[in-house]
Amino acid sequence: QVQLVESGGGLVQAGGSLRLSCAASGTSFSVNVMGWYRQAPGKQRELVAAISSGGPTNYADSVKGRFTISRDNAKNTVYLQMNSLKPEDTAVYYCHANTISHTTYRYLEVWGQGTLVTVSS
C-alpha cells in the first residue's frame, strides 16, 4: 500500500553537506509522523530526526544545530538537510513513516530501504 523511496546519500568530506529526500507513494493511506533513522556498522539503529504533519520537530542531541528536517505534505515527502558533517555521521540512513490505512483504518509503519552516507576525515 505504501512505499518509501530515499535518495541523496553519497560520499562527502568532513564539514560538507548533503540533503536526503524520502517520498511516500501508494494508495489508500495518510501519513502522520515522518522521520529519519541511521545505523552504523556494529551499532543499533537510532532516531536522527522526526517531524509531524503539523510542523513540530525533534532531533537527536548529536545532530542538533547541524541537521534540519522538513516536509512537503502535498507531496508526502520528507527532507533531511545535513550540514557540518562529521565522520561519526557515517551510517545507512533510513526513512520511516507512520501511516493510516484507508482500507482497515489501522496504523502501518513503513521503512525505506536505506541510503548510505559516508563522511571522510
How are the elements arranged and paired?
Elements: E1 2-7, E2 10-13, E3 18-26, E4 29-39, E5 46-51, E6 57-59, E7 67-72, E8 77-82, E9 91-101, E10 107-111, E11 115-120
Parallel strand pairs: 2-11
Antiparallel strand pairs: 1-3, 3-8, 4-5, 4-9, 5-6, 7-8, 9-10, 9-11
What share of residues is helical?
Answer: under 10%
What summary fits the major beta sheet? 7 strands, mixed
Q: Catalogue the unreliable spans.
A: none
End-to-end distance: 41 Å
Radius of gyration (CA) equals 14 Å
Helix run count: 0
Helix and strand string, N-terminal first?
EEEEEEEEEEE
Outline, from the CA principal axes?
elongated
Structural class: mainly beta
User: Mean of the pLDDT scores?
Assistant: 96
The fraction of residues in strands falls at: over 45%
| Count of β-strands | 11
Task: Explain the overall architecture.
This protein is mainly β. It is 0% helix and 60% strand. The chain has strands spanning 2-7, 10-13, 18-26, 29-39, 46-51, 57-59, 67-72, 77-82, 91-101, 107-111, 115-120. A hairpin with a 6-residue loop joins strand 4 (29-39) and strand 5 (46-51). The mean pLDDT is 96.
Entry keywords:
121 residues; mainly beta; four-stranded antiparallel β-sheet; 11 strands; 0% helix; elongated
Summarize the structure.
It is built from no helices and 11 strands.
